[in-house]
Amino acid sequence: MSNIESLKRICTQTRRDILRMVHGAKSGHPGGALGATEYFVALFHEILHYDSKNFQMQGKNEDLFFLSNGHLSAVLYSTLARVGYFSIDELKTFRRLNSRLQGHPSPHEGLPGIRIASGSLGQGMSVAIGSAQAKKLSKDPFLIYSLHGDGELNEGQNWEAILYAGAKKVDNYITTIDYNSQQIDGSTESVMPLGDLKAKFEAFGWYVLQERQGNKLEQVIHSLKVAKTQSGKGKPIVLILHTDMGHGVDFMSGTHHWHGKAPNDEQLEKALFQLPETLGDYSL
Amino acid sequence: MKIYKGEELKETRAGFGAALLELGKKQENIVALCADLTGSLSMTKFSETFPERFFQIGIAEAHMMGMAAGLAIGGYIPFTGTFANFSTARVYDQIRQCIAYSEKNVKICASHAGLTLGEDGATHQSLEDIGMMKMLPGMMVINTCDFNQTYAATLAIAKYKGPVYLRFGRPAVPNFTNKDQDFHLGKGLLLVEGKDVTIVCTGHLVWESLKAAKGLLREGVSCEVINIHTIKPLDEELILKSVSKTGCVVSAEEHNLWGGLGESIARLLSTKLPRAQEFVAVCDTFGESGKHMELMNKYNIDQKTLIEKVRKVIKRK
Prior knowledge:
Chain A is of the alpha/beta class. Helices cover 38% and strands 11% of the residues of chain A. Chain A has helices at residues 3-25, 30-35, 37-47, 73-82, 124-137, 156-167, 188-191, 197-203, 217-229, 265-273; strands at 64-67, 144-149, 173-179, 182-183, 186-187, 207-211, 237-242. Chain B has helices spanning 12-26, 44-49, 61-73, 84-87, 92-100, 129-134, 147-159, 205-218, 236-246, 261-272, 292-298, 303-315; strands at residues 9-11, 30-34, 54-56, 77-83, 107-111, 140-143, 164-167, 172-174, 189-192, 197-201, 223-227, 230-232, 248-256, 276-282. Chain B has two domains: 9-174, Thiamin diphosphate (ThDP)-binding fold, Pyr/PP domains (Rossmann fold); 189-312, Rossmann fold. Chain B starts with 8 loop residues before the first strand and ends with a helix. The radius of gyration of chain B is 19 Å and the shape is globular.
């Protein structure tokens, strides 16, 4: 089996994890998580350098990832578990009492792989930039990555961060905008149009990459590799990644309706039928 | 009664700036962030001496708090600097999520707290910050009273691992505590021993309390004066010991009545030692423009009000 085929099998299993976790908790955010699955698998399997068996908050000599749109927690937890940060079986505790897998990620319960809380939107870019500046100050050559929703860009703090990173040339930082064109109340076009996002980032002094096929694994890996080649050149880097919310499940795809809704038993069965088990489900 | 000398007038914020510079010299992991108020926060010398460890954020306080959390993740000890209102109310959710809940070792250093920033008026006069910050789980809250204490507190919080809110002020005020004092986080200071009433005070109200105690002694009233610089965690033992002796307490602070040091003391006494208490604080109102002593007089956070409250609380014993 080629590497890309085995990574695609991981994507399928990740989607099963997301659906089973959200179904098990009877709450959560499947739509965005399903849409960003290729990004997470590409990032953690092909791009980042890290030591999942020996989690250190400081992450010295590692690449660090920050999830700003914390409601995508299910895909983050599945990814972290499947690359070895913690036991796959812990996924069943998602959103339950006494769990380390909070509804939105937090280091408060000591879950390996989590360095900052997110959930209240618009804050992760500032944290990532601070972390990138710390890397520079300590002459650590590794990079900082972060993910943000497109709707999340409504929050003003992002634009403080975007202005800062461009002006101060934070070029050891690669951020990605999960551009699924959906937010809670409907399409981003109907709620708050982002206009020419590429031009906006460029005007703030960023190097901008666009990837139209954000659910095509080969393309996501390629784009992230291209992004990496642009690091250290005096500009922060943004990848505008066009994704399909709810991707992989036909009745969840391309709509905001599954932003924050759990499938019922019947819907879960129907969804899982479209995503055959590849690496083994976590036990209930 | 022990007499304190208050001839030397110095700004508490200058104490912060001087100590920050000292910390920068001693520790390479000290970094500072400022939101376009470097001179006002007395951070200029640090910024000039350690330009690579000073982050000019611009007028973007929310971003500053997030960046501080990120720098803390990278193993640095960030000190953020802006006015008290912009250090708290403006960025409360950022502090809550990325610093307090995320347990980051960030020192939020806030100048121009309270009414005494003066002429800028109510938009800048934070009288709610102690309440907001003490409600955040894990947040240490410190309000210093003079230059020397602010200097010592700044050095002390660098040694403590965890989020801290350090509150100080704008005007030059009597510098009466010892130079090179030891600063014990969470421990109050018994400044004057007395037997009739306990005055528990913080920040700029400490000097007012000492003046009031001196005045009251002429009437034959013996005041015990306790300076609480660390409002959270509160030195409960020292307060209880004193109040169990004197039988009543007056709290004094440059903050709203709601949510401040006085309420922390009331909670303590109501659960462990119910005794009469009176409050010297701003009574649920905004401030206004004026000179700092004019404002303290108008809003009844001064020596005169302290004396009245002491007389009142003693009658209630």
